From TrEMBL:
High-level lineage: Eukaryota, Metazoa, Chordata, Craniata, Vertebrata
PANTHER family referenced in this protein's UniProt entry, alphabetically: BASIC HELIX-LOOP-HELIX ZIP TRANSCRIPTION FACTOR (PTHR15741), MAX-LIKE PROTEIN X (PTHR15741:SF25)
Organism field: Eptatretus burgeri
PROSITE patterns with a match to the protein in the record: BHLH
One Pfam family in the UniProt entry: HLH
The protein, known as: MAX dimerization protein MLX
Length: 171
């Protein structure tokens, strides 16, 4: 064999060894990065090595898991963004109501005593509290959140909130 041919063969062997080293380093890195590979490596007896096919399969499984988790988080984020938007709309509406009441001209009529105002407020709140207790589940924050808005819409309409008969006699 000629010396130039020999140098070519040696050069090819070096390239092949470098490629093998790079591939092996890649497999070693995957074993450290992929949690299921790392778990299996920690529970392996002695110096038993995982096959390259097992490393690749566990890597594929982990990537699929990450994709599913990302999709789930994106869906959760979308729901939370919708909730924030709904709450912002509600906040804006309530602020408009407050501004409208603040800007409404006040009629100079006989003032109602604080005791009478408190008595009326108390009777209205007693009725609301009773409906709240029977309609809204407070066993978890999620159930409370799910129930409270429908309760507000159903029981806290201005036309539905009125003092009971006991307070009507006070007027």
């Amino acid at each position: 064999i000629s010396s130039s041919r020999m140098l070519g063969v040696i050069s090819q062997i070096r390239i092949d060894l470098a490629s093998c080293f790079i591939f092996q380093k890649g497999y070693d890195d995957l074993q450290v990065i992929v949690p299921t590979c790392l778990q299996q490596q920690e529970t392996a007896v002695g110096t038993q090595k995982m096959s390259k096919a097992t490393i690749l399969q566990k890597t594929i499984d982990y990537i699929q898991f990450l994709h599913k988790e990302k999709k789930r988080q994106e869906e959760e984020l979308s729901i939370l963004r919708k909730d924030v938007m709904a709450l912002q709309i509600m906040k804006d509406n309530y602020e408009q109501i407050v501004r409208a009441h603040q800007n409404a001209p006040q009629e100079d009529q006989d003032q109602v005593s604080d005791e009478l105002q408190f008595s009326i407020f108390q009777s209205m709140m007693d009725v609301l509290f009773q409906s709240f207790v029977t309609s809204v589940s407070v066993s978890s924050f999620q159930e409370l959140s799910a129930c409270v808005f429908s309760w507000l819409e159903e029981h806290c309409k201005p036309q539905d909130i009125s003092p009971n008969e006991n307070t009507n006699s006070i007027y």
